[in-house]
Structure formats: structure tokens, C-alpha cells
Amino acid sequence: MKLIIHDGSKEWEDWMRKTFLESGEQAEIITEQEKIRNCIGCFGCWVKTPGRCVLKDDYNRMGEKMAHADEIIIVSRCVYGTYAPFVRNVLDRSLPYIHPYFTKRGGEIHHKVRYPDKLRISVYFYGDCTEEEKETAVRTVKANVLNFNGILAHISFAGSREEIKSL
Amino acid sequence: MKIAMVNGSPKAKDSASGEILSMLKKYLCGEVAELRLNRMQVEKQDMEELFTCDVIVIAFPLYIDSVPSHLLRCLMQIEAYAKAHRQERKIRVYVAVNNGFFQGKQNLPAIEVMKHWSDRCGFTFGRALGVGGGGMICFLRAVPEGHGPKKNLSAALKEMAEDMEQEKLNGDNQIKTFEMNYPAWAYKWQAEYGWRRSAKKNGLKRKDLDKQW
Fold this sequence. Notes:
- The complex is a heterodimer of chains A (167) and B (213).
- Chain A is built from 6 helices and 7 strands; from the N terminus they run βαβααβαβββαβα.
- With 167 residues, chain A is an alpha/beta fold.
- The longest helix of chain A is centred in the C-terminal third of the chain and has 17 residues, at 131-147.
- The two termini of chain A are 23 Å apart.
- A 6-stranded parallel beta sheet of chain B has the order 2-1-3-4-5-6, sandwiched between helices.
- The mean pLDDT of chain B is 94.
- Chain B is of the alpha/beta class.
- The longest helix of chain B has 18 residues, at 184-201.
């Protein structure tokens, strides 16, 4: 199953299906509808309800949604070399996907995995951004891939959302 | 010179970012305004206060390799305000990011985001610190500045304070990342012991930390 996270409106969902899914393919699309709460750094998702965020809203099961997906597709405006606030917010709330314990990867300390399967991660940035911001965005995505213990499947930059399809 | 010390942690108390700013304050002589950006919106009086300052120093924790989302929303509001209220005075920006990993260099993408934000606001980027081992900073309040595990952090903050007061810009040496003066194995052991202890207080067993859904 694919998990699509994007920073557009409900109207974007049809476009997402046409662009990223085969006919009949299952996907969960994370769209900003209900107000999302920001991660408060309480670590309840590690020590109170491990694997699940303790904040009460529609976004408290991001860890398990990632676990049940084989690919994450992110469509986001590039903001200062990172994702748009809603996408960043969803990723912040995905902390329960990983385990609190540490492990070494590439000589650095990272968190252990909670789920053993490797997750394919594809990111489609769009919008007006400088070359330096693009370089930072690539570094950010690569860091996410390392920390989520995933595989980078795709990363690209388009001037607008409509241009993504032609990439 | 007026300095805005901005705590970008969402935590109401006991944040490593707040502790870093408290340490920095000890090295500063000028007027200091202390602000919190712990919600998704910058309050009107805080926004106005920020733009009366010569220096903005923002401390925050690394969230999923970047700037926490509530702070990112605030940064975008500050950029909009800066563009709507052009200033002749160039505000200088300083940044201190801490992460819960051990290596300070893992803060680099977030530091770069802050630099791009500063550029888009028309501010001048002064210096940024990327601190590893953020999880232990609040436990070191009793340790004198410049000693033991705080040695690197104290030295970097002292240098940052001197830069601010001397209006020094650092060219290619704007970004400094470092670790706490503490063995990595001990940091890992203590962090993991801490998670087990917290879980136990919540009525969980050690194996519950591995829960899969």
C-alpha cells in the first residue's frame, strides 16, 4: 500500500490518485482536513503508548500507517529547504514509527527501527526555491531516509504542482 | 544593542533549548528580551518586540532532521512581517540547534533551513551552533560553566555571545557543530535506561517499548 502525504487541499486527492496510483491500487492519502496538533516533545509515543502518538486528533496513528505502507510519497512545497508546515507536522508526528533505543548507522548514532521492513520514500517538491534551498532539501530528505531506515526511491523539484506530472 | 532570545521548543518547561539560552545569557551584557515560540502562531506583541531588536537568537530542538513544524509556521509569519515592514536596520540572526542523537553534525540540514529563512527575511546570518547530546543538557544545571560535559557547549556559547556584541560575522566559519564532552556509550546507556524507567512509571514492561501495531 502507498501512503501519500501532501500539503494541498481535498481537491488535490483526485490528482494524486491519477498521478501516483495504478488503476485499483490501494493508498491512504493524508490531507489537511481536521486541525493538526504539533508534536510537543513529550515522548509519550515511546514511553506511554509505544508506537502511537498520545495527542488526540486524526494524526495520532502516523507511525502505524507508515508501518503498513511499502512506499511513502510526499508532495510538498519546498520551504527554506524543507517541507511545507503541514507535511513537516505529519512527519514530526511520525516519531512513533521509530524506537527510542539507539543504534549505529554509518558511524553515527541513530534510533533503532520499530518495524524491520525498509520503506521506499519518494519526494516531489514544488514551488519557487533557490539552488541552495534545493541542496538543503536533498540533505533533509536523505537524513529522513536514514533515520526512518528507508530507501530513497525518488526526489525531484518542479516549478509548480502541475509540472510534477511531467517529471 | 537589544537581543531577542527566542526559545523555539514546544516544551512548557525543562527544555534543552531553554537551558542553552540560560547559559548564553550569562555571557551577554546588552538588553535581552526573552520570547517563546512554542505555538503555531506568533503573538502580535512578540512579533513587534522581535523587530525592535538588533539580534535574534533562536534555540530549538531538531525534529525529524529539521525545524519543528510549529516553529516553521512562526518563521513564515516572521518572513511575511519582515517583507511588509521593511527595516533599514539589518537584524542579525544566531541559531542554536540541539538534537537527541549524539553527533552535532546531524543538525546541519536544520541550520541550513534557518540560513535560508534569514536570507529570505533580509536578515544577516551571524553564527549557528549544532549541539549533539541534547538529552543530557537539562541534567547539567549544577555543573559549572566551562567544566566537565559542558566544556564544548560553554565555549561555543561564549564565542557566540562575543560575536553578537562585537557585531562580528564569520564568513565561512558561521556554522559549528560539536558533541558534549561525554562518552557516546555512556550517553546511549543513560538514555536507554531513562526510557525504561519512564515506561515503568507508566506501568509498562521493558518489552512494551518494542510494541508494533
